[in-house]
Design brief:
23% of the residues lie in helices and 31% in strands. It is an alpha+beta fold. Strand 4 and strand 5 form a beta hairpin.
Length: 132
Amino acid sequence: MQKLEKNLQRLTFRVWGNLTEDSEGWNSETHDFSFIYGIGTDGLSDFEMAIDGLGLNDVINLEIAHAKLKSYFGWLCPTLETHVPLVSEGGVVNLKLELLTVSSPEPREIVTAIAELQSHGGCSSDCGCGCH
């Protein structure tokens, strides 16, 4: 798939989480997760770097230690936790994400998102805003 320009674009993913310990496979319940790529105050998060090469309908599987979620997702962690129930099995969170859309947000949406991020001190993993 052709790499898409993502900088300051709204990315929408369909997200699956793993099932509980006594089940196998991926949870059939999905959640949509959207954000504006590249607005974090500390540069791109590890997650944003991992998805940079994705094209539409591409899928990425992630296996992340629960203790590293905040540093991996950076400023996106509070938004992800709001939209996707994160199940930790053995200290690991498994996610499957499919890139559904890449769209241009209105300029005011970008400004609003950056302002919200700034009001939380940037929401890096140690910003102290209480979101983490």
